[in-house]
Amino acid sequence: MASDSITDPLSATQQILRDHNPNTLPALRFSNGDVVIKLGESPSDWLLVHKSIVQVGMPLLAPTLKPEWAKPDIVEHPITGEEVKVHTSAIKFVEDDNTFLLEGKEVVLPVTEYGYRDIKAFANSELSSGGWPYGTSFTWDERRLQDSTRPLKLLITLLYGFPISLKALYPGLEEDKPYPVDLTGATILICNTCAYAEYYGCLN
Question: Whole-angstrom Cα distance, residue 158 to residue 193?
Answer without folding.
Answer: 10
